[in-house]
């Protein structure tokens, strides 16, 4: 069992998988942050547009 544990700890074949997982997690975090900013800007613009449309007279 000790020999297996030493061989497992010495093997670096799975190390690249950890790198890709960390990179993917960073990309997801960045995408969520960017989406949050876009949604906030879109919400403000749509509220302004709704107010502008509501203030216009209809059918003169």
Q: Can you put this structure into words, describing what you see?
A:
- Helix content is 83%, strand content 0%.
- The arrangement of helices and strands along the chain is HH
How many strands, what sense, and barrel or not for the largest sheet? none
Structural class: mainly alpha
Number of H/I helices: 2
Radius of gyration: 26 Å
**Share of helix, binned:** over 70%
End-to-end C-alpha gap: 88 Å
**Spans with pLDDT under 50 lasting ≥5 residues?**
none
The whole-number mean of residue pLDDT values reads 88
Number of strands: 0
Q: How much of the residues is beta strand, in percent?
A: under 5%
Overall outline: rod-shaped
Helices and strands in order:
Layout (H helix, E strand, L loop, with lengths): L1 H9 L4 H41 L5
